[in-house]
Amino acid sequence: MQKMETRYAHAPEDIRHYSTEQLRKEFLVEEVFVPGDIRLTYTHNDRMIFGGVTPTTEPLEIVLSTELGVDFFLERRELGVINIGGPGFITINGQKEEMKKQDGYYIGMGTKEVKFESQDASNPAKFYVSSVPAHHTYPNVKISIDQIKPLETGEKLTLNERKIYQYVHPNVCQSCQLQMGYTILEPGSSWNTMPCHTHERRMEAYVYFDMEADTKVFHMMGKPDETKHLVMGNEQATISPSWSIHSGVGTSNYSFIWAMCGENITYTDMDMVAMDDLR
To answer: Quick one: which pathway (predicted)?
Structure first.
């Protein structure tokens, strides 16, 4: 089964008086990976589509045409994929490849067939996908976790020691506007980034995972001088508009996938926020 939910864009003034319930309704995706299903969210923030594909006994394929005004899903889009579950397979235009945990794939505009399978239905693959509009066809590239040298950053003193694995990134492969990566916090660290930043030129979506049942992440959002937060559990996702900070702190260490799109693909294009400016 495939289900796609639409979320609309909001100005900073819109959320000023939101209750916790309303904030969660607009920005939090509580169910991303459902065995045997495809669960997608279509955000009008730069028209990103993201979500989870969790095959069990049968292959799954994202089928979107009339919803996007095209003949097939990737007719005018590019796609990033990272597997965070059990071993699986991805078939692209008839070519089948293994996808172990943490393997990724960049799939370019115009690709007609993308099928997802699990090797073992009792330990299904969990393919996190992110798709954005594209204007040019770049080559499909498998991105093995074994070939990525992580960026090690942060420090124990500030509780944000972490490894950043860049998947869809100019250092790895070409893309139109999609960037995508995987961050793992070291034991004893809890902040995914602080001091925080915004990037008015790009929106972002996060999915948090590798969390125990009683672990929570407090995802910070909003304008720097008027912050709000979402309390998030394992394998839940959130939308981060371009005007919003996107920083989180957990009750234990965790992992997350970030995906961005917008005006450029310059990873370091950030507007840093001074600690004294946070409210």
So the answer is: Glycan metabolism; pectin degradation; 2-dehydro-3-deoxy-D-gluconate from pectin: step 4/5
